Every structure is written in structure tokens, then in C-alpha cells.
Amino acid sequence: MRKNIVAGNWKMNTTVAEGVELAKNVNEALKGVTPNCDVIIGVPFTHLTSVNAVIDSNKLGLGAENCADKKSGAYTGEVSASMVASTGAKYVILGHSERRQYYGETVETLKEKTLLALENGLTPIFCIGEVLSERENGTYFDVVKNQIEKSLFDLSAEDFGKIILAYEPVWAIGTGKTASDDQAEEIHAYIRSLVETKYGKEVAENTSILYGGSCKPTNAKALFSKPNVDGGLIGGAALNAESFMGIVTAF
Ligand code: PEP
């Protein structure tokens, strides 16, 4: 059966020292509990090695927030999937709407990034989701379908089975506006049906689909109670160990 997962996305926040402190606090809080979900933190590249050194990887997974769409070479400033893997990280967030919106990431570059992540043994947390106008004009089903099909549906069933999906309506990210639990369930069920049509029932049933967008300790329980919502990708609330743990323990 698929896993429940709560993953933090720290974005471009914290110095290395602050990040290590935050990771230590989350790690410490996890010592006393056996959560009903896997717990992951996605941290800036600069933090990966230091954070990896202070966490118990059996209880807390570590991920990057991006990786390059090229293997290696003359790509100044880029960080490859193999570099990420060499830090001890096991996950990589790909296709976050901020990367699509501000850094021009396309369905094609994300396809390359996904392949390189998988080649290097990283589990992609692959983000999809529509902007407000697409929600309002009802095209959001087509938007997520296109994002998944173009970036992921050339994968083998075995490789697709390694992907974690994160549905993140862009209008809910960092805005304090959350999709209602029914809105989340509607689109998560649709996403699962797309996976079933392409890869069959078993792969679809085993795919974890996380919700992201202003998820907090106060709304996590209702969202996670929906049958097709398998956890959360958490931005702002992941920057504080207490609020992050409030979401982890919502399962
Ligand atoms: C995110 O950036 O993935 C996210 C969900 O952010 P927030 O929780 O702050 O809306």
C-alpha cells in the first residue's frame, strides 16, 4: 500500500547554522513519536551535507529542492542529481511552481530532471498544479494532466512507481488560502485515475499523492482524512519544528 508522507520545503530560507538547528529540532521531536507517515525535509543545496550529519535517516528523510537537467559539465551554478545524491540526500523536489514560474522550468526540462534523479537513486517529489485563472475557468484538470503526461508518462511503470506526486494549487501556495478538503480530494482522485489509465490499478493505488498549499496543523487533519490525499508538502509551516510536527502528527 502507498505511504503517507509529510515533506517540508524550506525554499530559500535559513542560513546553514539555522537550518541545522531546525533539522535538529525536527529530529529531536521525532525521537519521542512513531508517526503514521514518513517525514522528509527538503532543504537548500548548501545545507544538505550539514543537515545529513545531524539527522537520523531512519526517521527523517532528506531532500534537495531542485537538481539540474544535465548530468555534469560546463553549467555554472547548477547542481546535478549525482551531486545531490553524494550528500546523502534521498529525495529531490522537482517542478515546484516557483521553479516553473520564476526559472522557466518546462515539462521537457522536468522530464530530464526526473530521469537524472531516478538514475542517481533519488526519489522525485514531483509537483503539479494550476494557477488561479485555470482553477476559475475550469481547465485545472487539463493543466495537471498535461504536466504529468509530458514529464512523467514516458517512464516505465517501475520508474513511475518510484515517484511521489505533490498536487499544489499555485493560488494556495504561501497565500494562506487552502484548497478545501473536497477540492483536494476531487483533483487527487482525478490524478490517481490518470495514473491508473496509464499504468494500471496497482501502480495507481501505490502512488502517494501529497497536497501542498498553506497546509497547517489546523487544516491538515481534514485534508489527510480524504482517501486520495496521502500527506502534504509543507512550505511556511515547515520552518518551525513545532508547526511542522503539528502536521506530522495530524495523521
Ligand atoms: C510549497 O511551497 O510547497 C508550499 C506548499 O508552501 P506553503 O505551505 O507555504 O503554502
Task: Describe the fold and architecture.
- The protein has 251 residues and is an alpha/beta fold.
- It has a domain of 124 residues: Aldolase class I (TIM Barrel, Alpha-Beta Barrel), CATH 3.20.20.
- It contains twelve helices and eight strands.
- Bound molecules: phosphoenolpyruvate.
- The site of phosphoenolpyruvate has 13 residues, from β8.
Strand content: 5-15%
* Global shape: globular
Q: What is the average per-residue confidence, as pLDDT, rounded to a whole number?
A: 97
CATH class of the domain at 104-114 and 139-251: Alpha Beta
Order of helices and strands: EHEHEHEHHEHHHEHHEHEH
Structure ligands: phosphoenolpyruvate
**Name of the CATH superfamily of the domain at 104-114 and 139-251:** Aldolase class I
Compute the separation of the termini in Å: 16 Å
Low-confidence stretches: none
Q: What share of residues is helical?
A: 40-55%
What is the structural class? alpha/beta
Number of helices: 12
Q: What is the radius of gyration computed over CA atoms, rounded to a whole number of angstroms? A: 17 Å
Biggest sheet character: 8 strands, parallel, barrel
CATH topology name of the domain at 104-114 and 139-251, in short, is TIM Barrel
Short description:
This protein is an alpha/beta fold and 251 residues long. The chain has a domain of 124 residues: TIM Barrel.
Which keywords apply here?
single chain, 251 residues, alpha/beta, TIM Barrel, eight-stranded parallel β-barrel, 8 strands, 14% strand, globular, binds phosphoenolpyruvate
